[in-house]
Amino acid sequence: MPSRFRLRLAATHLRRGGIVAYPTEGVYGLGCNPLDREAVLRLLALKERPTTKGLILIAAEFDQIESYLDIPNDAMQSRILATWPGPVTWIVPAAGWVPKWLRGEHASLAVRVTAHRDAAALCRAFGGPIVSTSANKSGRPPARTPTAVRRYFSTDQVLVVPGRLGGLGGPTMIYDASTGVRIR
Question: Its principal location (predicted)?
Fold first, then answer.
């Protein structure tokens, strides 16, 4: 687990509009403050990812992302909460205020309450959810080590929070909360 100092450093970097790379369940994630439009657009440019695709947010607890969501019924909420914390990402109807730079061209938002100790600790240190997209250039394999992150991004672009990946062999599964159908 990253030291408290490293977590505070990363959280401060996020609050100042910086981008961090951090271990998740299966790959290194690339993240920023989801409410900082400039940081999100810079992250998307680094990844060479279209703004239309939308992004994933991770959180340490459901309370950190609840206001971002417009869950229409108890059955959907129960289905989602039964898998969290854990390595399952859900595409959920977004609250009306959620910015387009997070949703892309969708009315929904991809979210996960992570069980990965380091990623959850980073969300707690930051005080809320963070963007979580694989640390790579679009179309390239996701980084699984700090060295691999550095092959994609320089130290002036991304602050790396070293740590161990979880047990997944790749990115998390993604499900549509409305249908329960697995997307990835």
Answer: cytoplasm
